[in-house]
Amino acid sequence: MSSSNLEMPVPPATFEFLVMSLRAQAEIQLGLVHFGPEEERPEPKLPLARHAIDMLAMLLEKTKGNLSLEETRALENSVTELRFLFVQASNRLASQSAPSGS
């Protein structure tokens, strides 16, 4: 069996795949998706997460009126959910770094 038989097929280049790719990037940077042992989970990388979320928001703005209802909903839902998750991750990091006591 050759190595080319083991390769995964490349998905079609669709708008939905682009949205899901950017969403996955944001989720990874927020620390929501991790491959490996739990004790090796990296800290969220908020600037990189914010960049992926901003890219989705820019797509939403630039494509207004040119998407199907399903595409619009997928993009809007992704931006809204990721912004909420970003705030949660930011708050969690802030509470972890805040001095205790006082």
Structure commentary:
It is built from 3 helices and no strands. The protein is flat and about 50 Å long. The protein has a domain at 44-62 and 71-89. α1 (15-29) runs antiparallel to α2 (46-62) and α1 packs parallel to α3. 15% of the residues are buried. The protein has 102 residues and is mostly helical. The longest helix has 29 residues, at 69-97.
Q: Keywords, please?
A:
102 residues, mainly alpha, 60% helix, 0% strand, flat
Concise account of the structure shown:
The protein has 102 residues and is mainly α. Helices cover 60% and strands 0% of the residues. The protein has a domain at 44-62 and 71-89.
| Number of separate strands | 0
Largest sheet: none
Helices and strands, in order, run as HHH
- Rg, please? 17 Å
Unreliable stretches (pLDDT < 50, length at least 5) are: none
Alpha-carbon distance between the two ends: 65 Å
Give the helix tally.
Answer: 3
The helix fraction, in percent, is 55-70%
Whole-number mean pLDDT: 90
Secondary-structure content class: mainly alpha
Beta-strand share of residues:
under 5%
Shape: flat
